[in-house]
Design a protein that fits this description.
This protein has 642 residues and is α/β, with parallel strands linked by helices. The chain contains 21 helices and 25 strands. The strands form 6 sheets. The protein has a 7-stranded mixed β-sheet with strand order 12-11-13-14-16-15-23, with helices on both faces. The longest helix has 20 residues. The relative contact order is 0.09.
């Protein structure tokens, strides 16, 4: 059996599983088991909306899917330039998939900049649909094309479909009372209609969406629907598209249940609402808008009917300060941010450690340092989450692995915070936040019971028999202190960041007491009950691939490729990064080689080496994009053979 890993082009060829020819000159229908499409254009061309609508219809059709939105940080980069290119990649299949795909089978390029920015990712033989109306001499020169690539033969290795999208859209909308500029804005819907025809996507949901989105502007709604239908009809009638494609629903990939398409940030927001309901506590979000975390604030603001209160603060420090105050007042308190915001919130996180109050700090990681790459992804905040506070201030760290898993990770973070009375950092990232996949909506009886008991009266008896309330008298199992709601008679106690006396909570500068409190807070985190890590090792491998967070999909896809090529490789993935699962050390000792792929310069590998004295090998990437499965498979193969 060969150990060679197939190329994207070979994978694309392998994806064709059947072809059906229709009689009477009708167009052929080719059956595929998967396809990867990338929409690309200017930031103002609506590529994210186009991709999102194609994704929604694909989800409703029943395919498994994974998406990768990619857009610039600028609000509006100069039109037609490379920095202004926005793209949306969608991988959908009739079976279980894990990543947005390495290389597109189809590129829809709305202008020369979109073509130039993305052509390097396409395998030979891929289909390219270009909007020829935008390939003017000026537009070509703006991105450095000396000659028109549609005519100079440079695209001969691809299946090129030149389509005058702008002209066709304007022509389709000539009966509407719209200016040419207004009509041109619907060209993304024309492209969506064409791709919907090519891949047999449902249309009802998109038309309903457009009518709802533009309900206050019925002429605009009707024009977009007309452009969408015109794109569909163009695919049906033009001779340039001789084949359409079918990708069957992924009936065997999903357990029985009700599914919906969901992004990581939306799943996180729903998880927080579910946690508050399961805890029977009001949910409070204190937040300052920051990419890519802002969508959680936007979503939670819609759910006042569930007792959710959102507060958009004037800055990051005010956001977490308000959230910590809400925790003191008895709410399930959350603050959302990205890496730069975590830096600003660090002192208040330390205060939450000192006060021992439940608080969820959600960090949607992005490229850094400083402002860095606001719209690109990275995993470089792990050490900041672990150690980015003054003094000994340990906090639990939880990381979801997929967009849908963000829901469960939010519930788990809430469980730990409420049970152990501690702030918890949840590390998602831009790839998970903006990416999407099918999510099975859980039944209520599947959700954990997160209810807590507040202190209601004295909990300690003095030597003279007096009953008093000690705010730092701990549960012997969890080491959690009682949670006393302000205003409860008899439970008055001091609050603040100066060191507490054990039990009483009085201010203490005693050296022995400080040593005891520091060690007790650490022991509380070390004693958190987390599940053992599970290892996927069907062949008794000598090499273990250990990951965390959003690398799960690319790692799993790479491991599948290697096993398919006859290689023995084991895989394990961490959700709990502090504390680590209790069996992690024993797992690591079973393997001769441990490889840790991360979108940073080796932060988990550093922790693993320090704690377990294991010679963990790092494989790192910090280019703002997620790993590609083929890239990882090649690197892991080299590690196995080394």
């Amino acid at each position: 059996m060969t150990s060679q890993v197939s190329s994207p082009a070979e994978q694309a060829d392998a994806a064709v599983v059947g072809e059906q020819r229709k009689p009477g000159g009708a167009k052929d229908v080719r059956r595929l088991d998967r396809v990867i499409i990338r929409f690309a254009g200017d930031s103002g061309d609506g590529m994210q909306l186009t991709g999102d609508r194609f994704t929604s219809e694909t989800a409703s059709f029943g395919n498994d899917l994974s998406t990768l939105p990619n857009f610039p940080a600028e609000i509006r980069a100069p039109a037609g330039t490379l920095p202004g290119v926005s793209s949306f990649q969608l991988h959908f299949a009739d079976h279980d998939i894990l990543t947005p795909g390495d290389a597109p089978n189809v590129l829809v390029a709305m202008n020369p900049a979109a073509l130039k920015a993305n052509i390097g990712d396409l395998p030979r033989g891929a289909e390219i649909i270009v909007n020829t109306d935008e390939f003017t001499k000026r537009a070509l020169q703006k991105v450095g094309y000396a000659a028109d690539p549609l005519e100079d033969g440079s695209l001969d290795g691809y299946h090129l479909h030149p389509v005058p999208l702008t002209t066709l859209t304007v022509e389709a909308l000539k009966e509407f009372d719209l200016s040419r500029k207004e009509a041109e804005r619907s060209k993304n819907m024309f492209a969506l209609g064409l791709l919907s025809w090519m891949y047999h996507r449902p249309t009802e949901g998109t038309e309903k969406f457009l009518n709802t989105k533009f309900a206050k502007k019925p002429d605009i709604a009707a024009a977009n629907v007309a452009a969408f239908r015109a794109g569909w009809n163009f695919g049906e009638t033009t001779e340039d598209f001789a084949v359409s494609y079918e990708v069957a629903p992924a009936a065997k990939a999903f357990p029985v249940g009700t599914y919906r398409n969901i992004s990581g940030n939306l799943a996180l927001a729903y998880g927080l609402v579910a946690a508050s309901q399961q805890a029977d506590l009001p949910l409070f979000l204190g937040s300052y808008p920051i990419t890519p975390a802002s969508d959680i604030l936007h979503e939670l603001s819609k759910h006042k009917n569930f007792g959710v209160r959102t507060f958009q603060a004037e800055d990051e420090i005010a956001g977490i300060g308000a959230a910590l105050g809400a925790a003191f007042g008895g709410s399930l308190a959350v603050t959302t941010t990205s890496g730069p915001g975590v830096a600003l919130k660090s002192e208040t996180i330390g205060l939450a450690v000192s006060l021992e109050l439940p608080l969820l700090v959600v960090d949607i990681q992005r490229g850094g340092p400083s402002t860095g790459l606001p719209t690109k992804t990275e995993q470089a905040d792990l050490l900041q989450a672990m150690y980015g506070r003054n003094g000994e201030a340990p906090v639990p760290v939880v990381a979801p692995r997929t967009p849908a898993d963000c829901f469960d990770a939010a519930l788990e973070a809430a469980r730990i915070a409420l049970t152990y009375r501690t702030p918890v950092i949840l590390l998602s990232d831009g790839y998970l936040a903006n990416g999407s996949e099918p999510w099975r909506i859980p039944d209520l009886d599947e959700l954990p019971d997160l209810r807590v008991r507040f202190a209601t009266g004295p909990n300690h008896t003095l030597d003279d028999g007096t009953e008093v309330f000690w705010p730092y008298k701990r549960d012997p199992q969890t080491l959690a202190r009682p949670w006393a709601i302000p205003g409860t008679p008899g439970l008055e106690h001091r609050i603040g960041g100066i060191e507490k006396q054990d039990g009483t909570g009085n201010i203490s500068y005693d050296p022995a007491n400080h040593d005891f409190m520091v060690r007790t807070r650490q022991a509380k985190i070390d004693g958190i009950d987390v599940p053992d890590i599970e290892v996927d090792d069907p062949d008794g491998a000598r090499t273990l691939v250990l990951g965390w967070g959003s690398t799960y999909g690319p790692i799993t896809a790479a491991v599948r490729r290697l096993r398919g090529a006859g290689e023995a490789v084991a895989q394990a993935h961490l959700r709990h990064l502090n504390p680590f699962p209790r069996n992690l050390g024993e797992v690591l000792e079973r393997y001769g080689k441990v490889v840790v792929p991360e979108m940073n310069l080796g932060q988990l590998a550093t922790l693993i080496r320090a704690k377990y004295l294991v010679d963990a090998h790092s494989y790192n990437q910090v280019n703002g994009m997620p790993f590609k499965a083929e890239q990882l498979a090649t690197a892991l193969k080299e590690a196995i053979d080394d």
